[in-house]
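A.,

Following up on our hallway conversation. Structure tokens first:
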């Protein structure tokens, strides 16, 4: 655990500045940092913040159900608060050293639960206008799309940290390691979270076959550690993909959500998830896979 007497820095609260998107850099992360600094001497843990963010984020979904712009504005404010809390938990974990695999998994689940609530209430809101069947189909497809998009976004960003250094990329995991750890765990809530994480990791590796071949080649060529010069080349290639990846993060996704809420056309947001962001996903994965195929180990 980090010594609370050590003066923290904004950079020390981040995974890596270069993978943060514009809104995180100028707003969410700085706010989260100042809150985390004030909390690091208290008994409040990152996981407590994560659980709080779940309830706050899911409340936003309920506020989006009403066709009232003032209630929707309240929901937007609540969802922004949830995202700030989502920043605080990770930054607090890095400032205090209270980082854990379970905490990281719980953090991912939190974001998924926000959007489950949002899609459920958007479907209920749309039902009187377009019919229950179509509303729920759109919400289901948008939800699945969000899950896959968020999964791959997180995977590529964690991979980028691994390209920076093995220390920075310590959270980058393989299916084999996750499965092995799961088998060693006693039956408990953490085991349930790990099982979800296993499915999460399987999806990531299934969608990225060329990346998996490259990682296997790197492991064979450099069994102890990947040389820094090779990491730098991988990092430079990966950086070219980050702008595409950032389009699928919460910030850009939420902007479209907020605009459609304010204009009372939430069906546009669901189609944005299903059509536009899936095109972005396919383009990003294709580009990254091509990079992996062409990389010379």
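Then the amino acids I'd put at each of the 297 positions:
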């Amino acid at each position: 655990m980090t010594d609370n007497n050590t003066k923290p820095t904004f950079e020390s609260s981040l995974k890596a500045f270069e993978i943060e998107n514009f809104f995180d850099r100028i707003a969410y992360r700085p706010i989260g940092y100042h809150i985390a600094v004030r909390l690091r001497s208290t008994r409040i843990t990152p996981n407590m913040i994560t659980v709080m963010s779940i309830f706050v984020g899911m409340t936003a979904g309920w506020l989006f159900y009403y066709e009232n712009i003032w209630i929707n504005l309240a929901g937007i404010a609540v969802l922004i608060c949830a995202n700030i809390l989502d920043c605080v938990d990770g930054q607090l974990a890095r400032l205090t050293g209270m980082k854990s695999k379970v905490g990281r998994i719980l953090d991912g689940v939190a974001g998924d639960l926000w959007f489950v609530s949002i899609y459920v209430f958007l479907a209920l809101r749309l039902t009187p206008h377009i019919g229950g069947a179509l509303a729920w189909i759109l919400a289901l497809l948008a939800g699945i799309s969000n899950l896959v998009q968020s999964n791959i976004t997180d995977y590529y960003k964690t991979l980028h940290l691994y390209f920076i250094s093995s220390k920075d990329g310590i959270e980058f995991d393989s299916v084999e390691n996750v499965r092995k750890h799961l088998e060693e765990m006693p039956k408990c809530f953490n085991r349930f979270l790990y099982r979800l994480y296993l499915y999460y990791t399987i999806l990531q590796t299934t969608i990225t076959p060329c990346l998996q071949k490259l990682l296997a080649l790197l492991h064979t060529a450099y069994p102890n550690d990947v040389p820094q010069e090779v990491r730098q080349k991988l990092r430079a290639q990966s950086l070219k993909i980050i702008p595409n990846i950032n389009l699928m993060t919460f910030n850009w996704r939420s902007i479209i959500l907020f605009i459609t809420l304010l204009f009372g056309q939430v069906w546009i947001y669901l189609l944005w998830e299903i059509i536009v962001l899936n095109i972005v996903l396919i383009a990003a994965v294709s580009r990254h896979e091509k990079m992996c195929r062409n990389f010379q180990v």
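The longest helix spans residues 132-164. Curious whether your intuition agrees with the design.

B.
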